[in-house]
Each structure stands twice: as C-alpha cells, then as structure tokens.
Amino acid sequence: MSSIGLTTGANFDTRRFAAVALFAVLLLAGILWIVWVSVAASTIDAQLAQQQDQLDALATRTRNLTANASGEATGFDVYFPGGTQAIAGAAMQDTVADVVEKAGGRVVESQILPVEASEDTANRIDLKASFEADIEALQKALYDIETHLPMMMVRSMSVRSFVSAGRRDADQENPVLQVALTISGFWTAEQP
C-alpha cells in the first residue's frame, strides 16, 4: 500500500507542477503581450507625431507659397513668366544661380539649351548649369531646385571631384565637386 501512496503523491505533485508551470507561462505570455502592445502603440504614436509635423510644415509652406507680400492668395506659380522663351529662360538662369549661391556653391557657367520643336509640347526650358560645390552645398542645391516654385526638375547630372581630377591642392576630407546639371522648367506668356 505504501507504494500506491507514493505513486499517487508523485502524480499529484506532477499535476500540480504542470498546473503551476502552465499558469506561469500564461502569465508571462500575458505580460509580454502587454509590453509588446505598449511598445507598438508608442512607436505608432511617434510615427503619427512625425507625420503630423510634416503635414504642418507642408501646410505652412503651402500658405507661404500661395500668398503674396500682402497676404492675398495667389495660387501656385509653376511656370516661369515671360513673353518669350528667352525671357523666361533668363529668369530660370537667375533662379538657379540664386539657389546654387544660397546653398554655398559657385556657378561657373549656365546656358539655355535649344528644345526640339517636336519635344516642346508644354513650353519647356532646358538649362545647362555648371557649378562648384562641396557635398552639403550640392545636396541643398538639388533639394532647393527640385522643390522650388516655379517648378524645375533635374533631367541629368554629372559630378566629378577635384580629388579624382588629380589636383594636389584638393581637400581630401570635403572635396569641391564639379557639377553639371541639365534642368528643365516651363514657361508661360501669361503674366501672374
């Protein structure tokens, strides 16, 4: 009889241990799920806050771009104004030069390129601009060109550093880059 009592006691202890272990695993799983949900919620909150900040910045920028000095709504000016392509092209040249110089670069040359009549369906202006800039100035200039109004877009780009050109006086840490861009914009004869 004593052997039966030991077996029954051992089974009872095993069942109790299994029940406690199962309870512990379920409790741990519940705690881990709560922690995971909390982390996921805070990550989503952070992403939403970042997106809201971006939307607010875009809304402010839109209000600034669509208002003149007196605060009147003017709409988006996506075209360079000018009675001819040459006049609008000159305005585009000045705009690109200002953007590059404000970014910290130095314009070497720029010229308006001829646009084939078969390609000119929207009064396109093509401008070739060459300038020198370090990497930060180049990044800023590219961003400002692509986000500028009147609208411009970079059609082609070539970059070469003075280091790779073999100049001994070139700064190895922050080299000056030779940049050649072809930029397109559009013009309209209508005056804003």
Description:
With 192 residues, the chain is of the alpha+beta class. The chain has 2 domains: 1-75; 80-188, Ribosomal protein S6/Translation elongation factor EF1B (Alpha-Beta Plaits, 2-Layer Sandwich). The protein is built from 3 helices and 5 strands; from the N terminus they run H-E-H-E-E-H-E-E. The chain has helices at 2-65, 85-103, 135-147; strands at 80-81, 106-113, 124-133, 152-161, 177-188. Strands 1, 2, 3, 4 and 5 form a 5-stranded mixed beta sheet that branches. Helix 2 (85-103) packs antiparallel against helix 3 (135-147). It is elongated and about 95 Å long. It starts with a helix and ends with a strand.
The rounded distance between the terminal residues' Cα atoms is 107 Å
Q: What is the arithmetic mean of pLDDT?
A: 82
Strand proportion = 15-25%
Low-confidence stretches: 1-6
Q: Helix share of residues?
A: 40-55%
CATH architecture descriptor name of the largest domain: 2-Layer Sandwich
- Large-scale geometry: elongated
User: Which class best fits the helix and strand makeup?
Assistant: alpha+beta
Largest sheet: 5 strands, mixed
Backbone CA Rg: 33 Å
The total number of structural domains is: 2
Order of helices and strands: HEHEEHEE
Q: Helix count?
A: 3
The CATH superfamily of the largest domain turns out to be Ribosomal protein S6/Translation elongation factor EF1B
CATH class of the largest domain: Alpha Beta
What is the fold named in CATH at topology level of the largest domain?
A: Alpha-Beta Plaits
